[in-house]
């Protein structure tokens, strides 16, 4: 067996030349104040805070329709989408985009109603095959706030329209106590209580 050396010699690392550009230099100068629109946009991006630590009382804390739809997904996320759910979602989306009261119902292309209706159709096919169905979580994920074009708050009228649509499309004529219309109803009550407290 060969003897190993007790010490390993490492060559010296080569010396690096000094960089010719030691870093970036930034010129700083004051800029003109922003206009009101730009300032408001930045304020909303910070969550309504003015940046000085004070709470902005004008920040809208009402629950929006899309937020309530996402809340229903958290409550009944593993439930397969049924026609009654799609009808309640349709009523909520119609309220969000301003349909109803004599105006034609508008379906937002790629919106939550299209997804819900596609899920109902897929679930009808999947029931025949015995595969897993499309759930409320699959339809009403965080994308609901991105897919609904407005930030309209939930009102008792919105909740009532959704409950009516859900019951009309349910075989038993009832609403799910933890379903879409129930989430909208809870949001409407919250918004009403918040408005009374203000």
TrEMBL record:
Record keyword Repeat present: yes
Keyword list, A-Z: Repeat
Transmembrane regions: none
Region (Disordered): 1-58, 164-198
Keyword Repeat set for record: yes
Domain of life, per lineage: Eukaryota
Basic and acidic residues bias: start-end ranges: 1-18, 26-37, 187-198
Annotated SMP domain residues: 63-125, 134-193
Pfam families: SMP
Family the UniProt entry places it in: Belongs to the LEA type SMP family.
PANTHER family according to UniProt: OS03G0747500 PROTEIN (PTHR31174:SF4), SEED MATURATION FAMILY PROTEIN (PTHR31174)
Name of the protein in question: SMP domain-containing protein
Gene: LOC101785655
């Amino acid at each position: 067996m060969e003897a190993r050396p007790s010490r390993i010699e490492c060559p010296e690392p080569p010396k690096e030349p000094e960089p010719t550009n030691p870093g970036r230099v930034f010129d700083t100068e004051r800029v003109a104040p922003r206009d009101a629109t730009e300032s408001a946009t930045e304020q909303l991006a910070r969550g309504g805070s003015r940046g000085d630590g004070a709470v902005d009382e004008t920040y809208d804390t009402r629950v929006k329709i899309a937020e309530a739809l996402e809340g229903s997904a958290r409550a009944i996320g593993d439930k397969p989408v049924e026609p009654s759910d799609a009808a309640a979602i349709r009523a909520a989306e119609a309220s969000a985009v301003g349909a109803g009261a004599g105006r034609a119902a508008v379906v937002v292309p790629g919106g939550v109603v299209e997804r819900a209706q596609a899920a109902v159709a897929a679930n009808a096919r999947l029931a025949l095959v015995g595969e897993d169905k499309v759930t409320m979580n699959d339809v009403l994920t965080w994308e609901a706030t991105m897919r609904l074009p407005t930030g309209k708050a939930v009102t008792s009228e919105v909740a009532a329209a959704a409950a009516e649509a859900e019951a009309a499309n349910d075989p038993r004529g009832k609403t799910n106590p933890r379903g879409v219309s129930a989430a909208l109803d809870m949001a409407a009550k919250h918004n009403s209580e918040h408005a009374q407290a203000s």
